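User: I'm preparing a small set of examples for a lab meeting where we compare how different chains pack in three dimensions. I only have the primary sequence for this one, and I'd like the structure in token form so I can line it up with the others. Please keep the answer compact; I'll paste it straight into my notes.
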Amino acid sequence: MDVSTPFSWRYRRLLSMARRVRASIALRGWRGTIGRISQDFARRPEVDDSLRLLPLEEVFVALSLPTSSVPRVSIVIPVHGKIEYTLACLRSIANHPPTDPFEVIVVDDASQDNTAATLAAIPGLRLLSNEQNLGFVGSCNAGAAAARGAFLVFLNNDTQVTRGWTEALLRCFDRHPDAGIAGSQLVYPDGRLQEAGAWVFSDASAWNIGRFDSRRNPAMRYSRKVDYVSGASLAIPRDLFEELGGFDPRYAPGYYEDTDLGFAARAANRSVWYVPDSVVIHAEGISSAGIVESGMKRFQEINRGKFAEKWRDALLSQPTPGTGLAAVDRAHHRGNILVVDTMTPDASRDSGSLRIISMMRLLVGEGWHVMFAPDDGHAEEGAIRDLGSLGIELLVKPWMASLPAWLAAQGHDLRAAILCRHTVADQYAGFVRRHAPKAKLIFDTVDLHFLREERAAERSGNSALARQAETTRRHELALIQRADTTFVVSEYERDMLARLVPSARVDLLSNIHEVHGRQAGYAGRRDLLFIGGFGHPPNADAMRWMASEILSELRLLDPKVQILIAGDVPEGERRALEESGLVVLGRVPDLAPLMNRVLASIAPLRFGAGVKGKVNMSMSHGLPVIGTTVAVEGMRLTDGVDVLVADDATAMANAYSRLANDEALWTGISDLALENVRKHFSADAALAALNRAIL
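Assistant: Understood. Below is the structure token output for the 695-residue chain.
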């Protein structure tokens, strides 16, 4: 080996770096350049090879795309040479095809290699060929003009897509009616984060959010509004793209056209969203290699000037260069709200999770930045992804050492802290008061624990449990007195607290349910459904009661009837329940099929407190409920009208028999149950309570 090679390599690297710094100063100024250098040389996360890239050296093999002649999605890919990257991109789409009908339009921008001939042989691909080189802008506009789908997705040819990438982009438009543009999480081939959207400063310089961070960091995995997203993977409704005039030709051949499109969408009162669960690997720079002074890169500075001139007035409201990134982020939402509960919510696990997720979604919809911290510090990968897709940031280990430490560093920015359950509020209320003096302290009881414990003690005659209930009562009432607002889930509990703590501000924020409606009628239904996990003491008692008494009473009237249990049950308890004849299904991610085939929901709760999510959830599907007095407490239900109340095993069996033999009764209760949910457990009622507490 030539001994001069290491020196030559270092010299070329230093020369290239000097050129980049000189160009960056022209593009961003000194402060922006220092920030970019700091970003580039910060300690980078370890390489993440879990994305399983397709190898570029793979020889061309038979490839076809399962496209449609009536697509909903049109994927537009401009190409100029680099056939190996284009083939890898297309193979990735074939491996992870959209579930919506789609088409793939490749625009060959006068490639000088065998691109056109190679692509012409791929079934399912629409190939357009430019007679002369039009660049990225012209090629994208040509592809869009030929598209037939309701949504355009622009994709660079030096990308590889992952499972669900288009579905996540399109969900953004479903969730946010004002959404105009949605962009993917862009990741380098080594797994590091390339971009989570971008900010624009008043001098038209831009900042890629999260560059070189870990793509797994929850701070980079929540959906949010941004100034623009990269054209490397960008979705937009086709009619909006046409309304905005497409990519502005003044930026041809490329650079700043995606920034301009984002500003045009926002000027039309449409928002731009970063969508973290749409993951796309991008070999940045392959399609536009070169230094800033020459090649395609030189248009970056040229087009920055054009952009600054076009959007001169809009840029006046953008942050000045050098503004801290945290301040830039804050300017894009109303403020920060912290929510803390014992563990990360899972809507398939319990009704309490469904309620808190619904609360947080409402807050995100109102423009707040919502951060959720589980007291145990843990969250599964799926929970980070699913909650992040709703716009909720998770504060979990190892990204956050402890909640008290986080409050000490970040509490000054909080507008409100919602502490769920007395065990959580007891731990953190003092830290919130000390480190977040501007924050409203909101205690969400979920249900009054002391009331549930008192009823359990009374039923069991357990003196130790009675003493525990008294201790809980003192703690809970003290927290209610201390909080700015306390949420309860039923009028019964609100009235009780008005007597016990008359000076406290107590508001009703009950369960929040979407009205799913009845998807199947009365005919052919049979059996009963119980929803709930064994870990909740009232549920465990209910399961044992069903096993010991209720099922046998039911089978005196209908020998084939079954009680299905949807919820987590430990293995030992599961065996005992199944031996008694109960059918234990475990956790069921989608309850709708069960709701549409069973005759009724059963809620045989003999103690507890608060509004029961299992009752609300069943009613939201139009499924009649047979429940105890405790189960339907505080829900404004009337026996025989919108629910059947039964407090012993024989009454439970008789209620089932009435529904099984009276279609008019079943249908009437179903209709009025749906109306009850619409009237008393709507998102509007919950949002009003949240606004009263926060504003």
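A couple of notes for your slides: The radius of gyration is 30 Å. Residues 5-41 form the longest helix (37 residues).

User: Perfect, thanks.
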